[in-house]
Amino acid sequence: MKKIVSIFTFALCAVAMMAQQPVITFKTTEHDFGKINEADGRVSTVFEFKNEGMEPLVLSNVRASCGCTTPNWTREPVEPGQTGKITVTYNPNGRPGRFQKTVTITSNATEATTRVYIKGEVIPKPAKPVNQYTIKMGDLSLKAKSVNFGTVKKGQKVNHEIEYANHTDKTITVELATRSEDNFLISQVTLEKLEPNQTGKFMFVFDSEICKIYGPMNFYAYVVVDGKKITTDEYKLSFKAEVDEDFSNLTVEQRQQAPILEMQSSLNLGEVAQGKSIKAVLPIKNVGANPMYLRNVYNNNEFINIVAPKSPIKSGKKADIKLTLNAVMDGEPMPAGFYEREILVITNDPNNPKKSIKITWTVQ
Q1: 222: helix, coil or strand?
Q2: I need a labelling partner for 143 at 20 to 30 A (CA). Which of 48, 88, 92, 347 fits?
Q3: What global pTM score does this model have?
Q4: How far apart are CA 211 and CA 225, in angstroms?
Q5: How confident is the chain (364 residues) per 10-residue block, as mean pLDDT?
Q6: Per CATH, which fold does 21-123 belong to?
Q7: Domain 129-244, what architecture?
Q8: CATH fold group of domain 257-363
């Protein structure tokens, strides 16, 4: 009986002690700023709290979840029945989009840790025109200097453009210089003579019907400013595309009679001495009914030279892709070790038009 009385007495004392502690309550624990403009700068809100306990309330720390959020709070003790405030400021600069942040409050209240929250959406600053043209080519500024036409079906035309601007205080002229062999790239300059602060566009059309290459390809053009053609990377525009044969209109019968590629997926060239060369063949066979055309053997490895058969491969016949490996890299003997590269064989087999072949060798 004495033990029960002791436990009851202890519980009453604990309740009494808790009743004497500070108690922190908030009018609201969340604020939604809604949509705010990045250009308008910082925004603030005030969270008001009250001490509903019997002892003075002291906030020992108020911490934000992010450096973009700054809290400021009542530092002096808040007497029972009195109020204090926490001002929370959010900096939207460089932070477009939605946000939600937490502010953690540590105090001597019965609930030692409490939290308040802010949220909203930052509307980004309007981009200044001058900031959009970040690439310099002499007196000319461009938004980009490379174009990826992506995957293009044979016969398609794909358009692209690059915007440019004159941010000097003088008039300049602009032209494009392309290679004659790149006649599949049709280009146009919308404004050849640019006054200060004027803008224009380079308009490009990739005509895959004219292009004789299948598979991945890279090509380029030069920007000519004030009549000066400078063939350096600073003035070069780079292009890439991948041309695929269009098999979408084949009938069921045509697919049944189509060529079928049969070849190995890897080729080990074995060992090669530093600075020496080695030759090998990669057999390719047509096990389909109609002739197989080797559209391309894509090879972007400077130390592998390839000679592909030009004649169509008849049904049931074989041909050889000839490879020569020169164990030289950047004019120097290739370092000893194991090497692995890939080539891409492209044919008119509608079910397997591209086949990647792994080439391996060891330099001694």
Answers
A1: strand
A2: 92
A3: 0.64
A4: 28
A5: 47 52 96 95 97 96 93 96 97 94 96 96 78 88 96 97 93 94 95 92 96 95 94 95 96 96 96 93 97 96 93 97 90 91 97 96 94
A6: Immunoglobulin-like (2.60.40)
A7: Sandwich (2.60)
A8: Immunoglobulin-like (2.60.40)
